[in-house]
Specification:
By secondary structure, this protein is of the alpha/beta class. It has two domains: 217 residues, Rossmann fold, CATH 3.40.50; 180 residues, Glycogen Phosphorylase B (Rossmann fold, 3-Layer(aba) Sandwich). It is 49% helix and 14% strand. Strands 3-2-1-4-5-6-7 form a seven-stranded parallel β-sheet, with helices on both faces. The chain is globular and about 65 Å long.
Length: 421
């Protein structure tokens, strides 16, 4: 009865979600060519390859960060099993662009099907996965339960439960217990996440939850070529203050800080969503600075605006210090591991709940600086600009903390392969 109700509610809610979905299609592009994937209708050549090849491992990752986690998992699995094939599915067009870079020979890339029984059944029939791996918090009830009923091992890796979701999971235990119980194993980022998952599960299924630490420590790696390209673009000069994956409101804060530090530092802003780059440029001009925009090929400008895909890690490598966005004027936080790996002094706001296990480890190592508000962020960045030696020591601890926590992915791959056979 509850699953029939879920399907009815999902069908009723989808039309209200569709306008926003279509708006993202227009803004970001990339969906239209494979829109039918959502209904488990794939191009004929894709279907032929699924039918002809060995059964793949189906890995689903919603967007860019999760796709990077999936790519690390796929590379490790391929290292120990060179003949493995993957079907990688994603939700967003930005995730798709990132996913194209992690595919190996024989792998397929699709958009995930809508979580309706018929679409899920058809997708599983076409893909024929030998295992299903979902990344972080991707809980699609029909998909998970159908795969498990067909005898396909289903795994959840790098699993996390946000502060907002935890009470809902617990309150809807009657619903989530069946979904979470369908997994063969769940690899949780932290004891907190494991406890929240178990609170929504039957006690008999608690043994399926294993605490591994965060995959994201293994995902981070430096890219010397990207660093070279970014260094050529940015040019030589004063150390760079990088605003990484910034959200609305955070650019204005960084511009105020830059006004006080411009004699000793340069500012580069890399917004999280490139379709907002026009608004960021408007803020730069409003603050009284000229803008040098990478997508436009500008050659001059006081503040550099990095609004092209796939170059953030290169920027982290050449920066002098990094503020990681969605942490001061928004909630959740963006990936702070990458700049830490590069040995940079890293600053975040107070809202990093999406990286709770990572933050706990970094704070324990005194490897990251948290500012509770814009004024404190300004004080901390200005102090780092004035004391390069102390900033460099913070960066050294950051790199050391990341390197000491690598190795999660191989352990998880070994565990999954022991189940899959």
């Amino acid at each position: 009865m509850k699953w029939a109700l879920y399907n009815v509610l999902f069908a009723l809610a989808y039309p209200f979600l569709l306008p926003g979905f279509l708006l993202r299609m227009v803004r970001r592009g990339g969906y239209a060519a494979r829109m039918n994937d959502r209904f488990a209708i794939y191009p004929e050549e894709v279907v032929k390859r699924f039918r002809a090849g060995e059964r793949p491992v189906w890995v689903h990752a919603v967007s860019v960060g999760e796709v990077q986690v999936a790519g690390q998992l796929m590379r490790e699995w391929r290292r120990v099993e060179p003949t493995v094939r993957f079907c990688l599915s994603t939700t967003s067009s930005t995730g798709w662009k990132t996913a194209e870079k992690v595919l190996g020979e024989g792998d397929e890339l699709i958009y995930n099907p809508l979580d309706f029984p018929n679409f899920v059944k058809s997708a599983l029939k076409t893909v024929r996965p030998r295992a299903v791996v979902l990344v972080e918090s991707e809980l699609w009830p029909n998909f998970i339960r159908r795969a498990a009923r067909e005898g396909i091992p289903v795994f959840l890796v790098n699993a996390r439960v946000s502060d907002r979701s935890a009470p809902r999971y617990r309150a809807a235990r009657f619903f989530f217990a069946d979904v979470l119980g369908a997994f063969s194993r769940i690899f949780a980022q932290s004891e907190v996440d494991a406890g929240r998952l178990k609170a929504a599960m039957r006690e008999s299924d608690h043994g399926k939850v294993v605490v591994t630490g965060s995959f994201k420590f293994d995902t981070a790696s430096r890219n010397p070529e990207k660093e070279r390209v970014m260094a050529e673009w940015a040019g030589e000069g004063k150390p760079i203050l990088l605003g990484a994956s910034t959200w609305p409101g955070e650019d204005e804060v960084l511009l105020r800080i830059y006004a006080k530090t411009k004699d000793k530092a340069r500012l580069v802003i890399a917004p999280r969503h490139f379709e907002k780059a026009d608004a960021v440029e408007a803020n730069i001009l409003k603050a009284g600075f000229t803008c040098r925009r990478r997508s436009r090929g500008d050659s001059e400008g006081e503040v550099l605006l990095a609004d092209t895909t796939g170059e953030l890690m290169g920027l982290c490598g050449i920066a002098g210090m990094v503020f990681v966005g969605k942490s001061l004027c928004a909630h959740g936080g963006q990936n702070m591991i990458e700049p830490c790996l590069c040995g940079k002094p890293v600053f975040v706001g107070p809202n990093t709940e999406n990286f709770r296990p990572v933050m706990r480890d970094l704070l324990a190592a005194d490897a990251i600086s948290v500012a509770n508000d814009a004024e404190e962020l300004e004080r901390k960045i200005c102090a780092a600009v004035d004391d390069p030696a102390a900033a460099a020591e913070l960066g050294r601890r950051a790199a050391e903390a990341v390197m000491s926590r690598k190795g999660v992915v191989p352990k998880c791959v070994d565990s999954m392969r022991s189940v899959v056979g």
